[in-house]
Amino acid sequence: MNTPLLLQLCVSTLHFIFCALSKVCNWTAGSSKAAKSAVSSLERKVSQGTVRDAATPTSVNYHFTRKCNYKCGFCFHTAKTSFVLPLEEAERGLKLLKESGMEKINFSGGEPFLHDKGDFLGKLVQYCKVDLQLPSVSIVSNGSMIKEKWFQKYGDYLDILAISCDSFDEATNQLIGRAQGRKSHIDNLYKIRNWCKQYKVAFKINSVINTFNSDEDMTEHIVELNPVRWKVFQCLLIDGENAGETALREAERFVISDEQFQDFLNRHSSVSCLVPESNEKMRNSYLILDEYMRFLDCRQGRKDPSKSILDVGVKEAICFSGFDEKMFLKRGGKYVWSKADMKLEW
Ligand SMILES: C[S@@+](CC[C@H](N)C(=O)[O-])C[C@H]1O[C@@H](n2cnc3c(N)ncnc32)[C@H](O)[C@@H]1O
Ligand code: SF4
Fold first, then answer.
1. Where in the cell does this protein reside (predicted)?
2. Tens digits of per-residue pLDDT, 177-194?
3. Cα separation values, 329 from 44, 168, 268, Å
4. Could you give the number of structural domains in the chain?
């Protein structure tokens, strides 16, 4: 292992230990001198900025609801609760994040357009763009609940809309569960792409590569749809969500090998907007907030929640997020994310 990487790991580990200990220990009584000096040294590093960046919530994914109208068999964020924060509380949390350095917010779920017929989401999008002046506001959705009226009301405040589509074969979408009834997921995808153009929102596509679609060639459709980014995920297992006894989904039968994933990427090497995310790149490179505004730590292969930022603030909660900023940067997490800065052909 090279020295800077090792150092970074040590500092991150110390930072984590410091956060954990400061939560459970009484430092004034009985703590050893050595431990105190290690913490002071770490605090010095934090104040000098050496580790401060690792705890800055630059880009946050807020899964404000777990409810969904689809039944994707591999889903790793399932309807374990039906809780959604009151709007004012969600806004308070978003303000705290902005004050801690957030530049980009992504709203996800569950299906984010489901709650309050998309109005809760629209109000948060507007709040983040107008009140908080965030450079980037985005949404990931299955697209099935979006109406043109939503674009008319809130489109101005949205930078990027990502729609998930795992196959251009309707039968495969049905097999995966990426559908509601017999409605065409693909027709809907094209319709939303056109609204994005009309209402000046950057259009993105997310695909999860799994056993049902790994042999497909999606090049033609992707080129025609022309998204600003095409995120291609390797199907990921998360204990308690889509694997293990307490999970609501059993995604083992969807999992593909690294070789199968690489084959899919090779087949689509001509698609310039493709951004691949292997399991390794994906696992800890997202700052995820759940419906209670708790950071979810995926380092143990499951989603371990921190305390809510609404109760303990961002600084304390983020210590338990398991966020790997290096991997965030390696996967290209920082990119041109304001629509004002994109060279889009509208
Ligand atoms: C949990 S979904 C929530 C938003 C919305 N319902 C949707 O499907 O786009 C967020 C993203 O995670 C992806 N996803 C879900 N389960 C996954 C898994 N097991 N591995 C990789 N990506 C997954 C979805 O395809 C989607 O792009
Ligand atoms: S991945 Fe599928 S089931 Fe999961 S939240 Fe998105 S649309 Fe719903």
1. Endoplasmic reticulum membrane
2. 998 888 899 999 999 999
3. 25, 30, 23
4. 1
